[in-house]
Amino acid sequence: MSSATALDEPAVDLELARQHGLTDEEYSDILTILGRTPTFSELGIFSVMWAEHCSYKSSKVHLERLPSDGEHVLHGPGENAGVVSIGDGLAVVFKIESHNHPSFIEPRQGAATGVGGILRDVFTMGARPIASMDSLRFGPLEDPRHQYLLRGVVEGVGGYGNSVGVATVGGETSFHECYRGNILVNAFNLGLVEEDKIFLAKAAGVGNPVIYAGSKTGRDGIHGASLLASSEFDEESESKRPTVQVGDPFTEKCLIEACLELMSTDCVVGIQDMGAAGLTCSSFEMASNAGTGIDLDLDRVPQREVGMTPYELLLSESQERMLMVARTGREDQVREIFERWDLDVQVVGTVTDTGRMRVSFGGQTVVDIPVDPVARSSPRLERPAAPAADLGERQKLDLASVSPEEDPQAALFALLDTPGLGSKEWVYRQYDQLVQGGTVIAPGGDAALVRVKTEDWAPTSKGIALAVDCNPRWCWLDPYLGAVAAVAEAARNVACTGARPLALTNCLNFGNPEKPEIMWEFAEATRGIREAAMKLGTPVVSGNVSFYNETSGRSIYPTPTIGMVGLLDPWDRHAVSHFSAAGLDIVLLGETREELGGSEWLALRRGLEVGNPPQVDLAAELRLHALLEEGVRSGLIASAHDISDGGIAVAAAECCMSGPRVMGAVLELSETSRPDALLFSESTGRVITTSSRAAELCARAQAHGVPAKRVGRTGGSRLRLGPGGSEPWIDVEVEELYAVWSRAIPRRLEDL
Amino acid sequence: MLAVVQFPGSNDDRDLQFAMKTALRVEAQLVWHKQPRLPAGTTGVALPGGFSYGDYLRCGAMAQYSPIMSDVKRFAEAGGPVLGICNGFQVLCETGLLPGALVRNHHLHFVCEFVHVRVEHQVSPFTSRAEEGQVLRLPIKHGEGAYAAEADQLKSLEENDQILLRYCEPGGRPTQAANPNGSLQGIAGIRNRRGNVFGMMPHPEHSVEQGIGGLDGTVLLGSLGDALAGGRS
């Protein structure tokens, strides 16, 4: 091809390939595939398609072991998002995805475009996005930089989600030293679709037009996926700010409405959003999925600026763009819909039977490569894995040598004052939690609950419960157990509303996979997710891997974030997580063991991050979920709150504080171990419930094989926690706890 | 029939239509902003919440130039009931159908939460189902919801009983602490002199179902429904 010289593009050689992040071996594979030296544009294409972010080359072998089938699963991994049936011809489409590196460099736009990207993954499949969540992790909030990052990320998530009209109904926000050099922003979205109206990314039907719609293509985000997301941070990373894209939620909102309108016609054969690696990735995926080829004319691509090169046009990650294949002859109908929403729309190519991607620019062919070797035969690595040398050290904990808590009440105050355990209201009140009119349980509970309406806004009896969870400290101490616990907790949170957990999505945030100890963490965590997902019957239907979360060689703690989705029908038989009335019996489900390893108490009060995380009994977990489902449905359970970070003490305080009004309670714990373990142990599989029929609930629990004990009663204005019959360990006005808990984040930001 | 105008970027349009149709059994139809005229049979108009044109300029500033707005103005000037919620309130102020403006919340954050508002006057097509002084629990969700006006405008609003809703404590006392955005005089909703155009920041359409936001929104939307059934136009 003569294009390289005519376009005055750099000559391609091994050195240029290396600068593009390709290895010598990968470059040699490219030469073999093409039988010649690639053009500059082709090199760009290979570099993004084979970058870690797009190719999953380091993670594939592990991800393939995750269970992805189940009776409700309509589409698992491999599509833009997972699709799970909720009955009566309806399905939910959901996925979680990371936008970590962009958010660290430019928090507002990084987070905003993270939300935009996940929304497109969902509506691309024909679903209307109805609920968002996010999992955010920052460094210590005392660090001014992290105050700035928190403010920026929350503004970005809210600014985009609010404007686009999708409620943000839940999430988690936590803080730890390990994220000081690399924050995590994981965005989740769930949409609703009719089962027979699901769209896939397929460029089928030779001769069909390939149509571009949405924002014009600019020079933003070039190599965002390959250079930003697929390498570690260092001091120079600030200079990568131009690779962060800029979000336009207004265009996204118009695009959602236009696409859903279009998909209600029969004009479209396949559709795909232009996400990471832009036009390149979307066209390759669509052609590859259909076994076809595509001829693309770059001159017809709507452009924001003049003089863009084919390389830039192909690799731009400008946001809010869609690529679709329409039926021949229906171009005008497609055009009419997008023009009504004042969006650019242009036929930019044709589906062919060549199996090749041919791209022309200024009358010259600038790309001509076979589709499959790039899209499917991307590298697949079995990277070496070995535990970190100090893992045994980390797991060592002799509890006898840890001095007992001298002042449990002070410890409770201190825990509630940490930004991680403090109220997240400062965060979620900046999000529209209500738009689309389905929010039954808003942020602040164990899981969110959203009532389902059909696309013509007819209300149904179905509710979708959603939660995201992960305890990174546990994952650092034992990535297998930590991952098992994350799946179990996410499912338990969903079950606390009364819903049955259906399926999960995961966002696997790890360090540099080229290091054996990181690869070992990854392998162990995926093994844990596999085990828990199989035992709990919640297949993994979608997900995302984010490697290279390191700065100057320091990795984050392994953070496999789990997003769990459950079904509750009818939605109005649900439990809340707070104490909803006075005079109810408090029934504790599950067993408290002396498990302080990896606990919040141990970290905060003793400065130790050591030990083994709590054990998880998945069979017991399943029995607990069945009891919760039955108990909530039958009205035996009025409220249910999962016991996690900070143990019973913190969970009980949350039950007292997180409702519309504060509520007192008395809890008497039998003295089976040291008091600080009773109060602050983080044993899994435990739930604080309230009931007006405690005896009946305990009997049902026994029938299910779930340990249950009536431990107290709601009412009054004080929280009392202690052994029965003697002086309580904690005895405090709930208002006093609330004053500390509600200010934990704003006081550090010196904000309202 | 209530015409719910759909601007590009409107978000609560379908929720409002749902609230009227499903919860209140009042006919409501979405009307695309590029339509030159309101549909035949229109007895009321609502401008819904959202981010018309992305609110990239001042909130509501672009929407006033949508083709449908000249007919909405004509409809209002003829005395037809016009309701603006949140972004719709902002549009009404930008259009000049209501006095004053909505500016950035005093704490500079977007805020989504349930607040209490007191119904100041009961004789109105928008509040006829309320008791005078009744306290309603409704959600707000906005970044620019602080009502601002010149001193003489405020005086005139008070004198002419144009302030229909004021932020208050659950017990009904309007206090600084109960004011979620720094609105002057705790104003949450005002009407024009004639009383047929009403703008409010809280979202009654998100409070029409037990278990999902409560029922307090039906007091206001039900009043409008009654007015439409009474054939005012």
Walk me through this protein's architecture.
The complex is a heterodimer of chains A (752) and B (233). Chain A is α+β, with helices and mostly antiparallel strands. In chain A, 35% of the residues lie in helices and 24% in strands. Chain A has a seven-stranded mixed beta sheet. Chain A has a seven-stranded mixed beta sheet with strand order 23-25-22-26-24-27-28, sandwiched between helices. In chain A, strands 1-2-3-6-4-5 form a six-stranded mixed beta sheet. In chain A, helix 8 packs parallel to helix 11 (249-263) and helix 20 runs parallel beside helix 21. Chain B has 233 residues and is an alpha/beta fold. Chain B has a single domain, classed as 3-Layer(aba) Sandwich (Rossmann fold). Chain B has helices spanning 13-23, 68-77, 87-95, 151-159, 217-229, and strands at residues 2-6, 28-32, 44-47, 82-85, 101-103, 111-119, 135-142, 146-148, 163-168, 187-191, 197-200. A nine-stranded mixed beta sheet of chain B has the order 2-1-3-4-11-10-9-6-7, sandwiched between helices. The termini of chain B are close together.
